Amino acid sequence: MRSTIIILTALIITAPAYGGQGVAPVIVEHGPRDSRKVALTFDACRTGLADEYDEKVVEVLLREKVPATIFMSGRWVDKNRDKTKYLSEQPQFEIANHSYYHPHMTEEPDTRVLLELKRTQALLKKVTGRKALYFRPPYGEVDGRVAAIAAGIGLTTIQYDIASGDPDPKLSARRIAQGVLQEAKGGSIIVFHVNRNGVHTAEALPEIIAGLRQRGFELVTVGEMLMTADTGTQGQGNVEKRGVSVPECGPTSITTEEYSKHD
Ligand SMILES: [Zn+2]
Question: CATH no. for residue 42?
Answer without folding.
Answer: 3.20.20.370
